From TrEMBL, chain A:
A Gene Ontology BP annotation from the UniProt entry: NADPH regeneration
Keywords, ordered alphabetically: Cell inner membrane, Cell membrane, Membrane, NAD, NADP, Oxidoreductase, Translocase, Transmembrane, Transmembrane helix
Protein's UniProt name: proton-translocating NAD(P)(+) transhydrogenase
Classification of source organism: Bacteria, Bacillati, Cyanobacteriota, Cyanophyceae, Synechococcales
Transmembrane region(s): 33-52, 59-81
Top EC class for this record: translocase
Pfam families in the record: PNTB_4TM (PF12769)
Domain of life, per lineage: Bacteria
Record field: catalytic activity: NAD(+) + NADPH + H(+)(in) = NADH + NADP(+) + H(+)(out)
Cross-referenced PANTHER family: NAD(P) TRANSHYDROGENASE, PROTON-TRANSLOCATING NAD(P)(+) TRANSHYDROGENASE
Membrane topology of this protein: Multi-pass membrane protein
């Protein structure tokens, strides 16, 4: 991948992000923030790449592993906590029936 | 193109699509929960894509597998446990903690690549390519470090572990932060020039910058800061994507970065604050001490729980205004008991939710939902404001600034212009509050002085419990 095409990827990704959220009801501010936060843990892919390419370099393996741990803490925790919050909203209608 | 490359390309494309749909769905109540799961699925898909690509090309050494498994198990386990255990009231600091760890991860990746250049990717690079490499490593470290320390400070402040030190409210803080910023800039360029040792300088000063910028910000503005830091962690991820040459990482990081920015903007609007004043204005209370709004209360009416119960019994329509104090007292379940009693005796009960009620926009909705309050009873500010004149009783529970009429009447007040709930229009207002202390803004609340306002002093949970007892004695809700 050339640098220029990566820049294009960056630009288009940003534009997509700007378009995705238009009007958000205040109710969802906290869950949305928490969900987006979980997605930002996508940096786990970088950590994985680091570990795979470390080729036996133990300090690098450790750094990668710690980094992966931090990222997954963010991802797993973030998605679970968002689900917990959202579960409270979606439970309501079924209760009423 | 060989097969693994094609497979990875298809999976990546699918993952990006699903992530975008996930973010989109999260902004609508109906689809939010599924959207969250969709995003989680997309994330696991991206991992599968990456691992299968390496399996199909270079292969993955056993040693790498071991470290991958160790890292993932520990990280996921702690994340899952924390997410399950944490009380709903401390959601904001939890998000801050998760966010900080995401930033830390990007920081570590960049550090790792900088210290131990990955073989066969850096060694035989031309000048241009290695420059890009250095730049993306530096950006990743810079943003990652700010995200990490900033989030940690935000968490500590929300938890109450850290108060706002006095000196951070003086002008000195701008000078200190400028010094940190300039120092990180110097380290940044030094690093790009090939001086690898300045990497540690960059780590240290950008960490300090994160602390220096976040520390002066008051508790009321913290949600905005967390949202902004969330956006930063996206940028850090995108930068890490440049470091390891991953398009998926760049797209997803940029998407979260941009979406986080929009969300920050939306939140600022709800609080009537501009991003600039949040970031550089210091805490609101520091400015307001000099304002004309502060002063003594002259006409406070205090009343007992019994009077409150008697008035409630005679009411037809009651509006509840829950606030931060309710969240702190964990009284949402007790509140639900009270409103159930009122409803059973035919009194109409509605909850008025200010956009920034609780500790974070949307936080109060989560707390009330946890206490089984029907979703339809939660009314947003614009919907409920016209209803106040036709309301008999308003119960203000631990809310303060969001019901201050100054925001409408007094143009010299720092609150002026902030959207508020017009509770004073109702026939009777009961304010349940621990004492006469001011709200987040530190400003006197004119509502408390009004003739139709009565104060019920006490901890929200205790007052509500007493209220249940009084209502029982009156036979409310027992048929």
């Amino acid at each position: 991948m050339s640098f220029i095409s990566l820049l294009w990827v960056l630009l288009l990704g940003s534009l997509l992000g700007l378009e995705l959220i238009g009007k958000v009801p205040p109710t969802l501010h906290t869950p949305l923030m928490s969900g987006a936060n979980a997605i930002s843990g996508i940096t786990m892919l970088a950590a994985l790449t680091l570990i795979v390419k470390a080729e036996g370099n133990v300090p690098l393996l450790i750094i990668g592993s710690v980094s992966l741990g931090f990222a997954l803490f963010n991802v797993v925790g973030g998605f679970f906590v968002t689900d917990r919050m959202l579960a409270m909203f979606s439970r309501k209608p079924s209760n009423k029936k | 193109m060989n097969l693994p490359v094609i497979i990875k390309f298809v999976i990546d494309l699918l993952a990006v699509l699903l992530l975008a749909l996930g973010i989109k769905g999260l902004s609508k109540v109906k689809s939010a929960r599924d959207a969250n799961r969709l995003a989680a699925f997309a994330m696991s898909l991206s991992v599968v894509g990456l691992l299968s690509y390496y399996l199909g090309t270079s292969g993955i050494a056993i040693q790498s597998w071991i470290w991958i498994i160790i890292g993932s198990i520990i990280g996921s386990l702690f994340g899952a446990i924390l997410a399950k255990k944490v009380p709903m009231t401390s959601m904001p600091e939890t998000v801050a903690l998760f966010n900080g760890c995401g930033g830390m991860s990007s920081l570590l990746v960049a550090l790792g690549v900088a210290i131990f250049p990955i073989s066969n990717s850096v060694e035989n690079l031309d000048f241009f390519k290695s420059l890009i490499n250095e730049v993306s490593i530096s950006v990743s470290i810079f943003v990652g470090a700010i995200t990490f320390t900033g989030s940690m400070v935000a968490m500590a402040k929300l938890q109450g572990w850290l108060s706002t030190p006095g000196w951070t409210q003086s002008k000195v803080r701008h000078f200190v932060n400028i010094v940190f910023a300039v120092a990180s800039l110097i380290a940044f360029f030094d690093l790009i020039n090939g001086n690898t040792s300045s990497i540690w300088l960059l780590v240290i000063v950008s960490s300090l910058l994160g602390i220096g910028v976040t520390l002066p910000i008051g508790g009321a503005d913290m949600p905005v800061v967390i949202s902004l830091l969330n956006s930063y962690s996206g940028i850090a991820a995108a930068a890490a994507g440049f470091v390891v040459d991953s398009q998926l990482l760049i797209v997803a990081g940029a998407m979260v970065g941009a979406a986080g920015l929009i969300l920050t903007q939306v939140m600022c609007k709800g609080m009537n604050r501009s991003l600039v004043s949040v970031l550089f204005g210091g805490s609101l209370s520091a400015q307001s001490t000099a304002s004309s709004g502060s002063g003594e209360y002259t006409n406070i009416t205090s009343c007992s729980v019994e009077e409150c119960a008697l008035t409630l019994e005679a009411a037809n329509k009651v509006i509840i205004v829950p606030g931060y104090g309710l969240a702190v007292a964990q009284a949402q379940h007790t509140l639900r008991e009270v409103t159930k009693k009122l409803e059973q005796s035919g009194i109409e009960v509605v909850y008025a939710i200010h956009p920034v009620a609780g500790r974070m926009p949307g936080h109060m909705n989560v707390l009330l939902a946890e206490a089984d309050v029907p979703y339809e009873q939660l009314k947003e500010m614009d919907v409920v404001n016209p209803d106040f004149p036709a309301t008999d009783v308003v119960l203000v529970l631990g809310a303060n600034d969001v019901v201050n009429p100054q925001a409408k009447n007094d143009s010299s007040s720092p609150l002026y212009g902030m959207p508020v709930l017009d509770v004073q229009e109702a026939r009777t207002v009961f304010v349940i509050k621990r004492g006469m202390s001011a709200g987040y803004s530190g400003i006197k609340n004119d509502l408390f002085d009004l003739p139709n306002t009565s104060m019920v002093f006490g901890d929200a949970k205790k007052v509500l419990n007493d209220l249940i007892g009084e209502l029982k004695d009156l036979g409310v809700g027992e048929k």
